[in-house]
Design goal:
With 107 residues, the protein is mostly loops. It is built from two helices and no strands.
Length: 107
């Protein structure tokens, strides 16, 4: 069962800065959804401060698929926090997708 599988994020974390498990319970009755707004948010980024280690920021460099290209490219894994596996360096630095302060800043 997909929902019963443990994930890499299933461990004890300080609850003060994490999103509540069911935000709808905290919503006021007057709040309504706007179905004209859609958001896609990558929820797999992790940081040592929140998640105990880097997640996704430190993935392996992609190998060059053009064997005729003789340029030398980095190999191995990215090394956060200065070197991240992303096309653009995040203005907040490498973050955890579970950090409420970061989520509020993004949205």
């Amino acid at each position: 069962n997909f929902r019963s599988r443990k994930s890499q994020f299933d461990h004890e974390l300080p609850q003060s800065d994490l999103a509540p498990p069911n935000p709808s319970k905290n919503r006021s009755p007057a709040a309504s959804l706007n179905y004209n707004v859609h958001i896609f948010y990558y929820a797999w980024y992790g940081s040592p401060e929140v998640d105990g280690q880097w997640y996704h920021w430190d993935h392996r460099y992609i190998e060059n698929w053009d064997k005729r290209d003789k340029k030398r490219y980095p190999t191995g894994n990215h090394k956060p926090p200065q070197d991240v596996g992303a096309n653009y360096f995040p203005s907040l630095g490498p973050y955890s997708s579970r950090n409420v302060s970061v989520i509020e800043e993004h949205f």
